[in-house]
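Newbie here. two chains, one complex. Structure please?
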Amino acid sequence: AQKITQTQPGMFVQEKEAVTLDCTYDTSDQSYGLFWYKQPSSGEMIFLIYQGSYDEQNATEGRYSLNFQKARKSANLVISASQLGDSAMYFCAMREVYGNKLVFGAGTILRVKS
Amino acid sequence: GAGVSQSPSNKVTEKGKDVELRCDPISGHTALYWYRQSLGQGLEFLIYFQGNSAPDKSGLPSDRFSAERTGGSVSTLTIQRTQQEDSAVYLCASSSRSDRAQFKNIQYFGAGTRLSVL
């Protein structure tokens, strides 16, 4: 069964600095998709970025980029130029080829300091 | 357009009562998912609907939980004889398609229903 591990329960970052949120995964499948979601205090899960297992380049979406290391089974989220509004819970998730569901990690709480 | 809408946003009930949670997916989305978010268990998949196909109920924790999706749109998650361990945030998501070869069918989530069982 697939498993997502986020080892950082909480992180602090200074406004305007970059931060990396760690995510490792475990799967026996060769084909899968990796997702990052942001959950602010309002509760809604907001999609940030996607990386496919066969994508040759790391995904980027504005200030978000994904440091994808397939051999290490890691998919770390990098947020550049942190803003106060980035303070939220961040979840890494995976979908396997035969799965309809997303499997989520435990999440990392990010606090951006002014 | 409008996002995924869930109602009520908060629900307080007494142990043993039945509750119904509603989800309105994004218009045109054929796939609908229910997840549960609790402190002890994190985010867990409950059930998945795709068009007129039989739902994937593999995540439902007990037979007290059921869900239906009428007309391929609105879905209702029903919890019978609620227990205190059912207290959680119930999240609904929808996506435009769910082809097994399409990993990147992004699931868009609602704000959830916070259920408190006293």
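Moderator note: Chain A has no helices and twelve strands. The two ends of chain A are 41 Å apart (CA to CA). Thread marked as resolved.
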